[in-house]
Specification:
The protein is mainly alpha-helical and 123 residues long. The chain has one domain. It is 47% helix and 0% strand. The protein contains four helices and no strands. The radius of gyration is 16 Å and the shape is globular.
Length: 123
């Protein structure tokens, strides 16, 4: 659920934002009036979700946000970062499965497993 995701994701989001905000990482965010934020802006997790810049939420939240960007930009490729501070390897793997098994199918996107040549499966 969104509530569980926010409880789990907020600390990592906040640490990530606090660490990178002095370097202008979030300067693409906008104030409520549409003006640019300060160079060293440090967003809240709610702000990141509202502006559709990061996704911390339910599967439906992820579908809505990814669908928004796909439709707006004719998005064909995307890179996901599941490694917020404090997220374990097992939790990252779970997030990858949720995206490939639940989020992308709801967007009508097929995910086909491609075999790696001459390699054993990692899991």
């Amino acid at each position: 659920t969104r509530e569980k995701a926010m409880i789990k994701g907020k600390p990592g989001h906040d640490e990530f934002a606090n660490f990178l905000s002095p370097y202008g990482r979030f300067s693409s965010y906008r104030n409520p009036d549409g003006s640019k934020v300060a160079f060293n802006h440090c967003p809240t997790v709610e702000e990141s979700n509202e502006q559709k810049i990061q996704i911390v939420g339910s599967i439906d939240d992820a579908v809505d946000t990814l669908g928004f960007w796909r439709d707006l930009l004719d998005l064909k490729h995307i890179c996901f970062f599941f490694d917020y501070p404090g997220v374990s390897r097992e939790e990252m793997i779970e997030q990858m499965h949720l995206v490939t098994e639940e989020v992308l199918p709801k967007l009508g996107e097929k995910v086909e497993r491609r075999p790696l040549p001459n390699l054993e499966p990692l899991v």
